């Protein structure tokens, strides 16, 4: 049994396809298949059901794969021990970030991080929360930037800051007369929200304390995965939407007139770095954490944890 065989095993489990796994391991499919067959012969057990498409691990295969992930991760830690002795950080850091954070948070720290750590290659993917968690479990990402708490025992959450929700409204909307908005003021019939699958959507509905569908009057119903699109709809059509605080800072003065804060205690979202429980690249992730915290606006950096809105939609 070799580490290479275990890495091939994990690749097939991740991609559920021998040819794709071989491609990602930079070997031919016959080479990968032969090594896996040798591993199965040594263990005396079939690890994959090859009759199914996509291939699936057998019951004993699932247990072997889980242990193989631990063995491979521990072996990689040997490299980190040597790497930690070096003064300069290097290597690749694969980051998954949710769409409601990416356009507002990434520009704040990316340039300074790359200038401080020129030997580090950052690979950033914009993904939904569930996709980030899945990729972390299969070691396709090193770290996630998302909203917590997730209550997932397979991951570790490292809170970074607490960001307030704000109300963005059409200038003709009745709430435009108010300086602050209470959750009870929100009417679902006026509210534009993201598609299902976005944790931001669930949090918005939790603030309203009402589940279910969001209905709009008239003949226009738009399903969007972009907060920027929702902003434009509010500006040109009608109604309101909720925005994260970071999205407000670079607005023009004219558009900031359409923003209203919530009354105290403001509803907040907890933004965290998320890693797998057996995560590697600790020094790189610590450097990323420090850079993000230093880059965010002081008003957010100094805010204490108060009324954090859950990321799972609560039906009423």
Automatic annotation (TrEMBL):
Keyword tags: Activator, DNA-binding, Transcription, Transcription regulation
Where is each HTH lysR-type domain found? 1-58
Q: Which Pfam families match?
A: HTH_1 (PF00126), LysR_substrate (PF03466)
Matches recorded under InterPro entries: LysR_HTH_N, LysR_subst-bd, WH-like_DNA-bd_sf, WH_DNA-bd_sf
Family the UniProt entry places it in = Belongs to the LysR transcriptional regulatory family.
Q: What is this protein called?
A: LysR substrate-binding domain-containing protein
